[in-house]
UniProtKB/TrEMBL annotation:
It comes from Polyangium sorediatum. InterPro entries: DUF3540. Pfam families: DUF3540 (PF12059). This is DUF3540 domain-containing protein.
Amino acid sequence: MRNLATKQRPSDLATQLAGEVLRVEGAVFFVRADGAVHEARRAASCLLEPVPGDRVLLASIADGSSYVLAVLERAEGAPATLSVEGDCALRLPNGRLSVTTAKGVGVVSAGDVSMVAPAVEVKAAEGTFGLGRLTVVGKELFAEIASAKTTVGALDVVAERVMQQVKRAYRFVEEIDQLRAKRVDYTAEKSMRLHGENTLMTADGLVKLDGEHIHMG
């Protein structure tokens, strides 16, 4: 019978040891194992970044290189960091990704953050946005807000239809409040009040005042 086994090169031989991380210098981990201190790199499959004090699984290769394969033990309550070099992609072709935490979620990026989805839903008791400039582009926008605070330097909204439904609305404009429209229709169930130091009402055609009582002056 033909022997399909291949000879293993000495450089492919590896010895696994359990050790403790003494210190970290850049990408090099100093691990004490089997009575010696080994300089090791983190294996690509070891996503949990080792820190001093961790008990790790160390692989020593016959060619003299060493790798930290996994973190076996860490002090209770110590934080954990999943770290990879370069770009990273998480793919779930046939599943759903859920993130559940007890204390919060933070996203920090030095570059752009983008989100693409057929639908996006955000629910929160309160919301605060601090943006230098915000541009919203949509075919139809509907806002139903219980409590939200938004601070932006400039806000641009481009939409075919915008609908807002609120119980109370307050606007405080320090300089100019300008509305340009083809038709404007304001309806108040009880009262409407316009007041200014100087109030002007002009029309190219008809100006009509209609009511049971009209007081001028």
